[in-house]
Amino acid sequence: ITAVAFWERGRLSASDALQSTRRPCRNNIPEYRTRLANYAMWAKPASRVMARVLKLAAHRIQTIDHHQQSCQGHEGHKEGTEYYVLYTTGPDVVTESVLGVRDQGFYDHDRHHHHHHHHEKK
Fold first, then answer.
1. What predicted TM-score, i.e. pTM, was given to this entire model?
2. What CA–CA distance (Å, rounded) separates 71 from 84?
3. Which among 44, 48, 59, 81 would be 20 to 30 A from 98, CA to CA?
C-alpha cells in the first residue's frame, strides 16, 4: 500500500456523471461515478499516487481557463465556483489520479518533465 483514499457520499448517477461533460473545463470527459476525497490520512513517503495528485492539480491550474465560468454548468455562478475548486484541486483530482488520468497532455508533460529531469542528473 502506498496511499489510502476515501470516497465521498454515494456514487454519482450515470446521468449526473454524463452531465458533468457540459462544463467546458472537463473537455468532454465525464466524471467517474465514484468521487474520491481530496485528502489522505496516510501515504508512504514519496508516494507516486500523491505525487500524481499534486502534478495533476498543478497541470489543471496551469492549463484550465482561469475564469471559473469554464466549470459552470447550467446551475449558476456559485455552483460553478464550487465545481472549479472540485475540478482543479479537489476530489476530482484525486479520483482521476487513482483511477486513471484522462486529461489531455498530462502524460506528455509528465514524460517530458521526467526525461528532462533524468537528463539533468547525468
1. 0.66
2. 5
3. 81
Give the number of residues written for the chain: 122
Q: Do residues 76 and 82 touch, judged by C-beta distance below 8 A?
A: no
User: What span, in angstroms and rounded, lies between the C-alpha atoms of 70 and 73?
Assistant: 8
Beta-carbon count within 10 A of 94 CB: 27
Adjacent-strand bridge partners of 7:
36
Strand ranges, E, within 3-118? none
**Residue 73 grid cell:** 454548468
C-alpha cell of residue 67: 475564469
Output the nine-digit C-alpha cell for 114.
Answer: 521526467
Each residue's pLDDT tens digit, 30-87: 999 998 887 766 888 999 999 999 999 999 988 887 666 678 777 777 777 888 888 9
Tell me the C-alpha distance between 108 and 114, whole Å.
Answer: 10
Q: Which residue has the cell 465556483?
A: 81
CB of 35 closer than 8 Å to CB of 77 = no
Report d(CA 83, CA 72) in Å as an integer. Answer: 7
